[in-house]
Amino acid sequence: MNCQEVEHDLSAYVDGELSAPVRSAVDEHLKTCPHCQKRVAELKQLAAGLAALPETQPPSEFLTAVRWKIVRGEEPSDLSWQEMLFRSVWLRLSLATAILVALLLLSTDVLQSMWGRRAEKTLAKVGEESAKPAEVTVAGRGNANEPAASRDKTDALATKAKTAAETVKKNIVEAPAPASPAVAESEVLEAKPGGYLHGTGAVIDASSSSASGGRGGTMKLADGRQAGVGRGRAFRKSEAQLGIAENGELSNERLVASNGVMFLYLNEPPPAITVEANDPVAFETRVSSLVTSLQGQVIGQDNTQTNMQKLYVSLPIENLEAFKAQFTNAQMLVKLQFDSVRAGVLGSLSSTTHTEVGQTGTNQTFYGVSPAATQTVVIITGGGSAAIASDGDRSKLGEKPATVVLEIQVVPPKN
Amino acid sequence: MERVENREQEIVTDRELVVRCRGGDETAFDDLVLRHQRRAFNVAYQLLRDHEDATEVAQDAFVRIYRSISDFRGECEFTTWLHAIVVNLARNKHRWWKRRGKGTTVSLDGPVTTDEGERTMQVAANTDPPDAVVVKAEFVNLLSEKMAELPAVFREVLVLRNVKNMSYEQIAIAVNCPVGTVKSRLVRAREALRTAMAGEWS
Fold first, then answer.
1. For residue A52, what is the nearest residue in chain B, using CA coordinates?
2. Which of A11, A42, A56 is the closest to B186 by Cβ?
């Protein structure tokens, strides 16, 4: 072999990747060739130099970050645009399906038992605070970790609320009147600045200003009150809101649906349970087993938030206190706030557990009555619109619900 | 020999963890991440030369592993699989930047070129190659700089071979090309690096 023949093999020679015959031939050549000897020495030096490149520690909390990416359903950013498109459409469809929701009626005593003093606020007080709901809802959703008191009435929030209300109003004006024949009564109402929705029920839908326009509706509750529902640009798109009005005035009771679960707020939303978890997957597993042991279940989760995962669990009301106690004691929690829970009443979303009693318009949906008949279920659905329908059995409204729903917000550790 | 045995043990442990992971054992996945995060991060860092990009790529690699662990049948070692994913994600990251005006292109088949045009192999005038391989810190530092200037495909094979000690066969899997290509690419990569390091030979 001459140098030219050998040279190409020297790299693999140094790597020990030559077959025995070739290796022997190269060995032979090297004995008499200073040129190639030098080349081998350089290759070895390169190899040694590369092996000596300093290693860097990966960032701390590497595993936590990986876990969170998994929970959020993040995809490595190397998808083709076709894949992206596919996924986003898929995401939209699933989101639209997930958005909707069930509700129930609530009895005041249940709420009192859960929220204590909050529930003591009377309707008289509701009147004077009528400017608050939008503020709390719009601003509060984005600051779920803040103590309720801190997000009370700052100017910034007030401005936000005003903006939100104006947006609602604007969109209501633009939206065609609800067309759903299944909706008992449809009425487009006024949203006043600084307030939430005003009037006998309400309609908001700013999320689809396209062809079909907005959609919404009102319904009469058994006790003579009316409720309206809608979704709006002012709110996160995964939320729908239902207002309850009495004597033409919207009370501060609102139902907020978020990814399949609807909550009733009295006056202002109590803080959700917020926990910091290193490993959201493990956390969910443990919550799930705890809830199961208390005859409840994890009914849903919301992975669409950027820095938060929400878990929804439902529990028999009599087990709520036990859940609180055990949850608080669980060692998995880094930090826990548990002043009060955001609780609501629940109707599940399954079409197999509810009787479908109507449908509203194209691409809209269904609503029904829980077979248990302790709940009136209102399901609001997507396709960019929201609709509400009563179920025809309003006599059950106001009955004490048997189930409480908790929203648990799981966030990464702060440090 | 002890080092070899440890390596064998590592492979066995990885294999067990993968099996547990596929069975739904979440802690096994955590163990895999903890065992290999440093490796994944450093390979990504050597390929991308950017702390943030490397972090993202390394983390995304584990996300991908989590999602596709059920498809992994142990055709190769876990680390080979991991490297393949890191390389792939790093390439895409690289491509992403390239579309935005950063980065360089390289022809895998053309002659080695530099800013000064095509280089032929030039041998320094030194005689008497050193017997022992001694690398000084300055040499390593310079090497690190020159590595950053190499085309990405060259960095890939160099990092996997010399930093991570992978065999040609493993590298072929990781970079998704035939073994023969790995071999010739290493020749060319080393030649490019050697040329870049001209005058720095001890």
1. B140
2. A11
What ipTM does this complex have? Answer: 0.76
Q: Hey, of B59, B155, B201, which one would you mutate to test binding to chain A, going by the most A CBs within 10 A of its CB? A: B59
Q: Select the residue of A53, A63, A285 nearest B144 (Cβ to Cβ).
A: A53
What residues have CB less than 8 Å from A84, skipping those under 6 apart? none
Instruction: Please report the beta strands in chain B, taking only residues with DSSP state E, as ranges in sequence order.
Output: 113-114, 117-118
Highest mean pLDDT pick, A360-364, B16-20, B148-152: B16-20
Which residue among B93, B121, B135 places its CB closest to the CB of A45? B135
Angle between helices A280-293 and B26-48 (to 10 degrees): 160
**What tokens appear for B22 in the block?**
């596929």
Restricting to B residues 26-55, those with a Cβ less than 8 Å away from any Cβ of A are 26-27, 30, 33-34, 37-38, 40-42, 45-46, 51, 55
- Burial class for A58, CB neighbours closer than 10 Å (0-12, 13-18, 19+): buried
Average pLDDT per 10 consecutive residues for chain A, totaling 415 residues: 82 89 90 89 88 83 81 55 38 38 31 33 28 27 31 37 37 30 28 26 27 31 42 32 41 41 37 67 80 80 66 72 71 38 31 34 31 34 28 34 61 64
B88 contacts A78? CB cut-off 8 A? yes
DSSP A190: B
DSSP strand pairing (A217-220 vs A309-316): unpaired
Interface contacts A/B by beta carbons within 8 Å = 142
- Which of A137-151, B13-27, B107-121, B144-158 is least confident? A137-151
Q: Give residue for tokens 């030096």.
A: A45
Long-range Cβ pairs for the range A280-287 (8 Å, 24+): A280/A67, A280/A68, A280/A71, A280/A309, A280/A410, A281/A67, A281/A70, A281/A71, A281/B26, A282/A332, A282/B26, A282/B27, A283/A332, A283/A410, A284/A309, A284/A311, A284/A410, A285/B26, A286/A330, A286/A332, A287/A311, A287/A313, A287/A327, A287/A408
Q: Which of B62, B67, B123 sits opposite A38 (nearest CB)?
A: B123
- Reported in sequence order, the residue ranges of B74-159 that DSSP labels E, i.e. its strands, are 113-114, 117-118
Q: Which residue has the tokens 């290693």?
A: A55
B6 or B154, which is more confident: B154
By the 10 Å C-beta count (0-12 exposed, 13-18 middle, 19+ buried), A233 is classed as: middle
C-beta atoms surrounding A223 within 10 Å? 12
For the entire predicted model, the pTM comes to 0.47
> What region does A56 belong to: left with phi over 0, alpha with psi -120 to 50, or beta?
beta
Q: What is the pLDDT of residues B58-114, one digit of tens each?
A: 999 999 999 888 888 877 889 999 999 999 888 887 665 554 444 333 333 333 333
Q: Which two tokens stand for residue B129?
A: 């190659």
Q: What is the reported pLDDT for B25?
A: 83
Asked if A298 contacts A379 with a C-beta cutoff of 8 angstroms, the reply is: no
Interface test with B, best of A62, A72, A87, A284 (most B CBs within 10 A): A62
Per the DSSP assignment, residues forming a β-bridge with A410 are: A275, A309
